[in-house]
Specification:
The chain is an all-alpha fold. The protein is built from eleven helices and two strands, in the order H-H-E-E-H-H-H-H-H-H-H-H-H.
């Protein structure tokens, strides 16, 4: 009995150590970014255009560009991704083809982002002649995030008990009515999780937008989806590597703004997810 208790205590201790090994470096990185970047953030920094070779002024165009790209990615990826998950989970039969499709989706989720950037350059920028634009960048990011959304949404849909579908069918509802009114609401927390994971990756990527949309510096804001835009990840890369004499505080300030943007999106999604989890009936 004592030996079992000792083994359990050692196991829990190892788990705590493993958790600390993962969490402490993250907290250290966040602490350094906040400590070095908080001094650069004020109203002017957040709402004005960059000046003097981006060594002065603000980063408003980069903030707006990141928001537009994230919104464009959501508009393009969520309907297709969730729709594909519904088809694979609720309609498609378990055949060699569907298993191959699922395997392809899993493999696509692991492809480096730079490959998606080159694909977007070839398809959207050159072949479809969208040019380096918000549209090309959003579609490239949407393709990159779609495997994550499809995989997460399909798992969430499959986790809904079969009894929900059976009861719907026994009451005379069609398959789509059961999916629309019963299965989807129950799976919504998991679907939201997958969507946010995809959008968070899209918001922080540099390589795809480097080839398809991001500009080094623009003196004006974008006017349509066919314009280029600045974006926080690429802006951070540029001021950290391409601008001599850039104040370190501004570099960390940009990193802090990007971090706040990502965390805000995550917190917003967590609130929505918690709301629907409370409404879930199982």
């Amino acid at each position: 009995m004592k030996k079992r208790y000792l083994t359990q205590k050692v196991g829990f201790s190892l788990l705590v150590i493993a958790a600390l090994v993962v969490v402490l470096p993250i907290l250290l990185v966040i602490g350094i970014i906040v400590a070095r970047g908080i001094g650069a953030i004020d109203w002017t920094y957040l709402t004005t255009m960059p000046l003097e070779g981006m060594k002065e002024g603000g980063i408003f165009p980069a903030i707006l560009g990141t928001l537009l790209l994230t919104l464009g990615t959501a508009v393009a990826a969520i309907p297709v991704g969730v729709g594909g998950a519904i088809y694979l989970s609720e309609y498609a039969r378990d055949t060699v083809l569907t298993r191959a499709i699922r395997l392809a989706i899993i493999n696509l989720a692991g492809i480096p982002s730079v490959v998606y950037g080159l694909f977007g350059l070839g398809l959207f920028v050159l072949f479809l002649n969208f040019g380096t634009s918000i549209l090309a960048g959003s579609l490239t990011l949407a393709i990159m995030t779609m495997p994550i959304i499809i995989s997460s949404a399909e798992e969430a849909l499959r986790a809904v008990p079969t009894e929900f579908r059976t009861v719907s069918a026994s009451l005379g509802g069609s398959r789509w009515q059961g999916i629309r009114h019963i299965v989807l609401p129950q799976a919504l927390p998991g679907i939201i999780t997958g969507v946010i994971l995809g959008l968070l990756r899209a918001a922080g990527e540099t390589a795809p937008i480097l080839f398809t949309v991001a500009a080094f510096y623009l003196p004006r804001l974008p006017r349509s989806i066919f314009d280029q835009t600045m974006a926080l990840p690429y802006h951070l890369y540029v001021i950290s590597t391409q601008v001599p004499g850039m104040p370190v505080q501004m570099q960390y300030g940009t990193a802090l703004v990007l971090l706040i943007f990502v965390l805000s999106l995550n917190i917003f999604a967590s609130v929505i997810r918690s709301y629907y989890r409370r409404k879930r009936e199982w």
